[in-house]
Amino acid sequence: MNAEKPTATADASARGHAPADSGDETPEQAGGTFADRMIAVVVILLALTLLLLTFGFPAPAQPEDPGTAILPRLVGAALLVLGLALMLRPETAAVAPPRGARGRLTASVIATATLVFLVVPLGFPVAIALFLAFALWLMGVRKVLGLVLYPIIASGFLYYLFADLLDVYLPAGILEGVL
Amino acid sequence: MENWAIGLEAVADPTVLLLIVAGVLIGIVVGALPGISATVGVAILLPFTFVMEPLQGMMLLLGIYGGAVYAGSIPAILVRAPGTPASAASVADGNALTRKGQAERALKISVLASCLGGIFGVIVLALMAPALASIALGFGPAAYFMLALLALTVVASVSEGRMVKGLISGVIGIGIAMIGLDTIQGFPRLTFGSADLTAGINYIPVMIGLFAVSEAFMQFESKAKLKLDVATEKFKASLKWLARISPSGLLGSVIGFIIGVIPGTGGDIGSFVAYNEAKRAARDKSKFGRGDERGLAAAEAAKNSGTAGAMVPMLTLGIPGDVTSAVLIGAITVHGLQPGPNLFSGAPDLVYGIFIGFLVVYLVLLILGWLGSGLWSKLIERVPSSYLWPSVIVLAVIGCYSLRSSAFDVLIMLISAVVGYVLAKAGFPLAPLIIGMILGPIAEAGFRRAMIIEGDLSWIFSPLPLVLLILTLLSVGFAIWREFAHHGSLSETIGMDNTVPPTGATPVVTADGPSGEQGAAGSVDSEKPAPSRSSGQSDS
Amino acid sequence: MTTTRRRCAAAALAAAFVLAGCSGGDDGEGAEADGGSGSFPSQPINLIVPYAAGGSADSTARQLAAVAQDTCGAPIIIRNATGGSGAVGFQATLSSPADGYTVGSASIELTMLDHMGISEIHPDDYEGILQYSEQPIVFGVPADSPYQSLQDVIDSDDRVTVATSGTGGIYHLGYESMALAAGIDDRTVNVPFDGAASALQAALGDQTAMVSVGAAEMRPHIESGAIRPLAIAGDPVDYLPEDVPTLHELGIDSETTAILGLYAPAGVPQDRIELLNECFNEARESDQFSDYMETTGLNQRYRDAQEFDQFMGEEYDRFGELIDEIGMGVH
């Protein structure tokens, strides 16, 4: 017995998410099997690479041990089969962000990546403060107070909480010696 | 009987009670921060317990332990970032409730179920600890393998309607866990000479990146417009509501405790299995993955009763049930006491004091958590998303770095976040990936050790592995039956979580081909512009 | 709402109070930096522990550091960098600047990883600061085992499964060395587990015939009667029953000891090494640390910087041969 449609609609309104963004959506994003097919290709390639690599694995150190290659081969075989299955029957999905959001999304990912790479050299307090300022701006915060005060306070508080209270080692980077 | 009196007397000391409260508070802070888990909190305060009386020290640490395991669900429910690994199973349904404006309800379920699980666990621990020790010992490598297989079937259940994608997710998880030194042979697999890869990929940064940071990216994409129309519920607890979630809570408690007793398996595995069983036992499974209270209650109860379960081998054998209890052992031995049967007879005030104290921990937690949940949910409503999600990313970075003082872990988190974003938008369930990462190594190690010990496959027919094997086959059979019985059922084909993004980009899922794959009814899509992240297979 | 907020704020303050009070001594905020004129050490010292929080390496390091903050006059910041049987932490230490402000917690694996192809670490890459502990390997069987002594094992023709903490770890090599010397290495089977506790669990559950772990780790189970110790691969320790023979007493030429110590990357000026040795040794000799070591059952064993260096060099050579003999070498 299928109760799909009533459930779906009931849920949609219960979710409370306004379709505010559907306006952003351009027809091209409405669907496409590209994503699934792409992922399937990647999966198959990974599977083949894995299987290839396992042939360089050593024999087991002791005779009763099935060996270090068994699981990788199983995984490789499974991924191969599943990848093919996905390729044969892809579903439609829109993975790419709608036109208006693309820049923002890319910027957020790049900003996060920059944060990740700069936390050690720059130190946590500075890197976090800079990231927060940029991220807030990206999210649409325009009040100077928010863009300046919150990053400084938040990074200071977090650094104190972790490095001092919780005794966790967080490099202070360029502020080394000051804190 | 008099042991209980001795224990009660020991706990009635105001210092002990103060330490319990302090411990719980510290534990909540520590547990709610993603990446910092109970182990860190306990390990850091451990040296200070050396100058205290044994019971006092243990109570501080147990307060931290219980508080942290509970509190890990707070960020899991609110922002999809599990504060501790055991809360991973609560992300889907918990966060779905938050999106529906029911954050307070979800948090209160978490408190109640956690305390129910904890109290249940402590009572069973207290009454049956020595008897249970033999369960822990009876679990040899063969049984571990079978248990891991059984737990892996959760992947199938969670991927209903998206079997291929769910399985890909799970197998990828197993694959990621293979990277590093092979447990049995010590051979570096897939490490390409990198010292970091040789150490293996830690599943906590993966989990945080996959669930939380990917969500943050999606929030950036949608510029968090979603929150505008969420009408938050004014939640009032009622007896009827209690009655509805209690059975799952109880079920979760039992499952979580048993799995907790087995050394090396903990709340993370127990909560997934409990969730799965609650789903299986439910008549109306439509909301599992989309905010079913029963699933959440089961997972929450399981993770906390698991901590009590982990104390069984710890107290009776001196074998840690999980990483945190390993540190707790240190707290006992440093006072010249040895865990084991002698502990029970030689220091009844300590042991029974621990039992009663642990109960008090959960009572304190109940009060603090209940009050706090109102606070947290208001917080999540008031804080603008524009501030919230950048902060989540920052917390994720700090948390992942703090695990091993490793920038590599943070990099893993970043990669997982990108992967999670892509997979989620393409309709892949993400929980199977984590499940695969946790269980893959256990399964492989168990299998190979069993083979080494026996020399052949005869271990499959030992009683315990055999029983588990039968359960596994039943579980798999059940999942297959459901898949085919509902062949042709349309609409929600979305897997457990992170399958449909909350943005305007709606995946229109259609059935391609005559059999097997289930598709969404096209007509429903117009209603789904920003659906909740976690959707479950709806059927009746 | 305001009441709730106030209540919660009060609770948070209380927690912060406790935390601040507790951590005050731990992270060295109370320790005064010695030598205002910039003499060593004038900055916090990093101590990198290659093993997880809560293990014996980590716990002893933390205890030692707690006292050393006073004796050395600088805060000591502990970092756990785990993975690869210690490789990750070792590499982290060795690649840090050789100025004396970064030291590492040493285990015997430092001398073994190179031979097993896990990580290239040669004795020339580091300088010992001091050794503070050792524990011999002990071989045991479950209480209901038919073997009453190691000789029984040797005499029998059985295939003997031995639970160890992992392939290539010191406990594995320890029993292999014994088996080689006793001539039973073709009958023993290594069953690697994740750490000493899991290995002991396996033996307790009768999953394996024997177990090979450190004396301190086996001690609680010996005292409870669950495990019967058969032999000690080193010198006798006072907390084990007196009738447990050492391998040498049994005529088996093999000895394996796990150690704990501190080291620094090569190139640190000699005077700083000396200073570190002095202040850490002072910490080691303190009542607080000695009491701690006594209750955990880890033997204190001291070697100063030069002796430790020499010891590690010798162990490196010895393990090179042993690992090749066992057949696990890659060179």
From TrEMBL, chain A:
Keyword Transferase among UniProt keywords: no
Record-annotated membrane-spanning stretches: 38-58, 109-138, 144-162
InterPro entries: DUF1468
Domain DUF1468 as annotated: residue spans: 39-171
Pfam families registered for this protein in UniProt: TctB
Disordered: region residues: 1-29
Record's keyword terms, sorted: Membrane, Transmembrane, Transmembrane helix
Protein name: Tripartite tricarboxylate transporter TctB family protein
Protein species of origin: Kocuria coralli
UniProtKB/TrEMBL annotation, chain B:
Span list, region Disordered: 501-540
Chain intervals with Low complexity compositional bias: 501-511
Lineage of source species: Bacteria, Bacillati, Actinomycetota, Actinomycetes, Micrococcales
Organism: Kocuria coralli
Segments forming domain DUF112: 17-435
Entry superkingdom: Bacteria
Descriptive protein name: C4-dicarboxylate ABC transporter permease
Keywords: Membrane, Transmembrane, Transmembrane helix
One Pfam family hit: TctA
Transmembrane segments: 16-46, 58-79, 109-129, 135-156, 163-181, 201-220, 241-262, 350-375, 387-404, 410-439, 459-481
From TrEMBL, chain C:
Domain of life from the UniProt record: Bacteria
Gene3D superfamilies, A to Z: Bordetella uptake gene, domain 1, Periplasmic binding protein-like II
A family per Pfam: TctC
Span of the signal peptide: 1-20
Keywords: Signal
Family: Belongs to the UPF0065 (bug) family.
The name this protein goes by in its record: Tripartite tricarboxylate transporter substrate binding protein
Species for this entry: Kocuria coralli
